[in-house]
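Handoff note, outgoing to incoming analyst
You'll be picking up this chain. Sequence as last confirmed:
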Amino acid sequence: MKQLRKIAVECRNIGLSYDGGKTEVLKDINLRIEPGEFFALLGPSGSGKSTLLRLIAGFNQHQRGQLLVDGKDITGVPPHARNIGMVFQSYALWPHMTVWDNVAFGLVERRMDKATIRQKVGAALELVGLAQYANRRPNQLSGGQQQRVALARTIVIEPQVLLLDEPLSNLDKKLRVQMREELRSLQRTLGITTVFVTHDQEEAMTTADRMAVMDKGVVQQLGTPAVLFDYPVNPFVANFVGTTNLLTGDIEHVNGDTLRFRAPGIGEIILPKHPEARTGRMAISFRPHTIRMAVGDAVRDGAYVWLNGAVEQSEFLGEFTRYRVRVGEAVITADQSHFSGTTSFAPSASVRLGIDTSQIRYLPV
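Most recent structure output, in case you need it:
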């Protein structure tokens, strides 16, 4: 198949409500998906991500704002006239049709000639690696193969935009990893602007060029996976994109170089002055993998602030061991890389936690 023309999708101040405006589902959505970009909408159930995807497809209608595709406002344009392809969570394949007929369905509906249909369907099945399964029916295929049929059926019509609504949620973990790699490879081959809805942070972070984290109908933060992971703008994003430790307390500036952070149940922590820190109530966020664990008083490193704690629980996860450490009234999660022959920290062991101060983020509460 030829590479498709890359186009942008833009939401400008989009708002969508139900019950005569009583239930606001999307609130002032502003985002631009760049031409040829693989873009993820990430958020928990009820965050509005699937509603926004269906709005782009034309199945939902916003009451406020503009939806631009390739620079044109398509608000009010019916779904069949939008030239947007969507792959549903359930795949929605016709069980009585062969793989070939499922993929050809959209072209037949467009009344294309048989030679064109034959060429396009053959190319689409070749692209997703299913040419040899053309005469089978969906119930004779695995879940991953059915997913590929649904993709082929969508891309064969050469849509301007490809929408994916949690397409991997019905697959087991190993197959999900394989399919997300294939999705990314296919998207790069076609160059098609793609919007991918998921509640799985790992799927979003491994596939997306950029992503928007949504909660309660609001885009909480927009950016690359690395930026959202390293520089979350609020506690929700910090907690949803990866695993983090959040301590809420009060900040008092001590002098030009340091500040005092008072966390209930932990006490006073002296930290280096930081441009994001302001006097008053704030949260500090730090990732488990940035913490050092040690025993005794031998560790001295100015880049770290050290807290005393006791191991409550540990989980061996192969590449690393995850510890839950009681520090005063708080519980802090610390991940330590595993190497063969290393000795783990025993339950109830007294330990010191070294928090890398360069990795602390200061967040509003």
